Amino acid sequence: MTAIAFITHHDCTLHRVAAHHPEVPERLSAIDDRLLASGIGILLSHYDAPLVTREQLLRVHDAGYVDWVEASAPPQDSDTMVCLDEGDTVMTGHTLTSARRAAGAAVLGVDLVMSGEASSAFCSVRPPGHHAERARAMGFCIFNNVAVGAAHALAHHGLERVAVVDFDVHHGNGTEEIFRQEPRVLFCSTFQHPFYPFTGTEKETPNLVDCPLPRGATGADFREAVQAHWLPALEDLCPQLVMISAGFDAHREEDMADLRLVEDDYAWVTRQLKDLADRHAGGRLVSCLEGGYDLSSLGRSVAVHLDALIGY
């Protein structure tokens, strides 16, 4: 069996902001602990995330934006905090390196599955990325990790059909904004609505499949939306690569949102996407961590996600 790649880096734990902020380094520790306890960790091939290059970033972000982020970064030995938006997307001394590793992980994941060294990959990284637009940081996100990976697949590997699917509780507005006019990318998403960032309800181009879910929606509602809307569009695309923005903050134990998914729902959707990748993309699938802030449910959900990718 071809390896499942698990890509992370210690640098991703060094990004830490205010004590009350939900996007904490312990998110990655919770995942590591659960994989160790479940035994799944020994079934994975472990890789260090590289630093993303400027060329790779500029495929999805404006040069002026990248320059601004780099200029805004405090020195690594500084206690300074810099807000990049209205207050929840913050840089401290190690944030820029963490963000570069997070985006670089998606690039490495694509390279591994395209070379056949891995059948699929999971990027256990932070900060998350799917809210970052071409020229705007928001929602804890600085660089759009999954978009950087998808654009790398198009530009470097010459793919013509890439699927990006997003099951975070928040709409992946940044990924949608970046790929809105890119017919080679199909973007499918489920998310709570109305809810931050209050986007995703107006279909603008044929390559966007947005499925807003009302407050209190259950796993059955989620599965119905995926079966009715995602899967037919994905089958029509016949993707050469499947990429996932894997947000686990729609879990019923999360106190930041109001969807009611459980681990079985994440396992189910992962199996659907793995089967799709097996049929059309030679199994090539890259998953990037997005949300998930309740540490216990995050660890359990990632474990079943990876278990489904392994195929047990």
TrEMBL record:
Q: Which family does it belong to?
A: Belongs to the histone deacetylase family.
Top-level taxon: Bacteria
Q: Which residues cross the membrane?
A: none
State the species of origin: Ectothiorhodospira mobilis
The record places domain Histone deacetylase at: 21-308
Known InterPro entries for this protein? Answer: HDACs (IPR000286), His_deacetylse_dom (IPR023801), His_deacetylse_dom_sf (IPR037138), Ureohydrolase_dom_sf (IPR023696)
| GO molecular function annotations of the record | histone deacetylase activity
Cite a single GO BP annotation. Answer: epigenetic regulation of gene expression
What is the protein's given name? Answer: Acetoin utilization deacetylase AcuC
